[in-house]
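Below is how a single chain appears once it has passed through the pipeline. First comes the sequence as given, then the structure the pipeline wrote out for it. We keep one example in the README because the format questions we get most often are answered faster by looking than by reading.
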Amino acid sequence: MITSNFDLHIIGGGIIGLTTAVTLQARGVKVALLDANEVGQGASFGNAGHIAPEHVFPIADASMLRHIPAMLLNPTGPLRIDWRYLPRLMPWAIQLLMNMRPEPFEHIHKALLNLNNHCLQAWLNFANQWQLDDWIKVKGSLLTAEKASSVDLLKAQGQRFNDVGVTTELLNQEALLAHEPALKDNQLGALFFPNTGHITNLTAVINQLSRTFRGLGGEIVEHCRVLEAHTNIDGIYLTTNQGDITASKVMLAAGAHSKPLVKQLTGIRVPLDTERGYHLMLPHESARLQTPVTSLDRRFVMTPMQEGLRLAGTVEYAGLEAPPNMQRAHVLLQHAQPMLKTPLNSNDKVPWMGFRPSTSDSLPVIDKTERVFLNFGHQHLGLTQAVVSAQMIAEYYFDESHTIDPRPYQLSRFT
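Resulting structure:
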């Protein structure tokens, strides 16, 4: 039996759950953090490491539709669907398509813009408060092109970003190669995003936040899988593989695994699925690049980290149960090598796969309903939006006025 003597039990110990746990514990809330495996070892460990406030347009864009057949037919392409999973995916995918229409697309864009405008400064303040500065770098990021038509697309995208207040600078080939000398001259130009950051050591950040949380008096319970969750007159009853808990309040931050628990706790079926993402870590290449580099044509990213160069990207729809297809990770090396002047050292490379939690409208669920707090569904932006989401939950918890209009992220949008 796990102790129930806490003000709040957080289900899910990824970066979303952990930043919220630290934020609330520091304000006097007695928090227990429950994780089905080990804290920070899911998508929070394996993401591309970007603090990417520039991602203010929904990933589901109607302009992408004409490219999807070619992506699916390309075995090394950025998109794969396991056709056996398609019947389960279809209800979510139909809603995703509906959200590409101009009116919902604009609504989602504005909601992302409102959230992301606060993300970088929130992270910098949080990092300073909790001694994370060594691993947070604000050197900007690059979006490169290697086709003439893609350079034209970069120009149009740069204008689109600048029009909504996201600063970009168009670099010609000379300026790009001066910025990142390791890149090959087949890279014709780039958009530079100066107001973005990246985390150079995700493991160090997770470990530091875990130590901080425990030092503040919080409790972490690992390998504690919540099997069922129900509300009753005494509180919220959690059935776990380590015993039963009667919780006063809970926050659900279980990422892609949140859907059944939301239904049990609120009665609402959230259109949530997972975009399985892969990375390949090259431990001997930590000094190759200065800033994260994303390829517009190859649709993947290279992020320099203390532990090596992380090649990340691709989207795979195959659900939570299918085994990983690690060839999806290894193929990233085939995309990276042609972009660089000299061969990459791929010795001791490590592949990884994880689950991005994606709602059909590309927006997270950040909300409170009675004694249940909700903080999940951040798709590709969990790391970016983690601190701002924690602050919004704190505003709900203490019944404070909201810095950011909370309505676009509320659960009621799915009723």
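The first strand starts at residue 8 and ends at 11.

See the next section for the split statistics.
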